Amino acid sequence: MDAGSSAAYSRVLPRAISTREIAEYREGGAAVIRGVLSLAWVERMGHAVDRILTNPGSASIEYTPKQNKGRYYGDFFVWLRDPDFKALMMDSPLPELAAQLMGTSRVSFFYDQLLVKEPGTAEPTPLHQDLPYWPVKGEHVMSVWVPFDPVRFDSGAVQYVHGSHRWGKLYAPKTFGQNTGFGSMYAKSGFEEMPPEATLLNGQRILKWETEPGDVIVHHPRTLHFSEGNARNDLRRRALALRYLGDDACFDARPGTFMENPKVRALLPEGSFNFKDGDAMINAAFPQVWPRP
Ligand SMILES: O=C(O)CCC(=O)C(=O)O
């Protein structure tokens, strides 16, 4: 199939999502869903990511200190400035995948987060849950982590604590790197400090998967997760986390979320973040993606 044809960039799920996959996601808080994207999608997005890496966004973060090897690059709301990122979150099989896994009739898009670990990057992603970082409440919230390179355990595969989305606990957000400008915000969150990782992880079942291009990993925003650096010299680890909101998700006006960061807010069109507590987050900056508009 011609990689440039519209069929190669299909919006349709290439296969049915099984009841076992749905049960794994709901019970474990994370699951791998294999073979969801065509190689054409993966290749297109690999080029798109490289464009962003050579032209970093205004809210992007270099988590790797200058004197260190490698590069851990983070960026937010990339879809608002790049049509390929917009196409992936909206016009790929992923909105339908999110609807099926969350079991919701309607899905809107919260934001995308680019997380690239180039070969030889030592910086880990600290153990965290996503929800404390976000001005969102509800159960129908989900991330789809989409890698654009083969991922191996030693190239920065993300690891998830099985069932931690059901612990009934939310821990205070922590910054992914030094001097990122987020620390002062997170201090206002009011959530309890996370116990030491060794204590928290002791005896827990860890879910992790090596993936091939076209596979994605889904996780619930209460699930504890982390990743090591990319210890490989021969493998990049370019990944995009897409955050989807379902029927019961709504705006949470609590303080201390990443959306308080002025650089992040400046990415959004004027007036698109004027929600009241409990509002459904659907407008031009947080578009409905399922059913397709
Ligand atoms: O890509 C990583 O290393 C971490 C991913 C993550 O924290 C997320 O998708 O929420």
Description:
With 293 residues, this protein is α+β, with helices and mostly antiparallel strands. It is 19% helix and 22% strand. Strands 1, 2, 3, 4, 7, 10, 12 and 14 form an eight-stranded antiparallel sheet that branches. The chain is globular and about 45 Å long. Bound molecules: 2-oxoglutaric acid. 2-oxoglutaric acid binds at residues 115, 125, 130, 143, 145, 156, 158, 225, 227, 239, 241.
Number of helices: 7
Shape: globular
Mean pLDDT: 95
Radius of gyration, rounded?
18 Å
Biggest beta sheet summary? 8 strands, antiparallel
Oligomeric category: single chain
Low-confidence segments, given as residue ranges, are: none
**How much helix is in the residues?**
10-25%
- Calculate the terminal CA-CA distance, rounded to whole Å: 28 Å
Fraction of residues in β-strands: 15-25%
Strands, total number: 14
Name the hetero compounds present: 2-oxoglutaric acid
Order of helices and strands: HEHEEHHEEEEEHHEEEEEHE
| Helix-strand category | alpha+beta
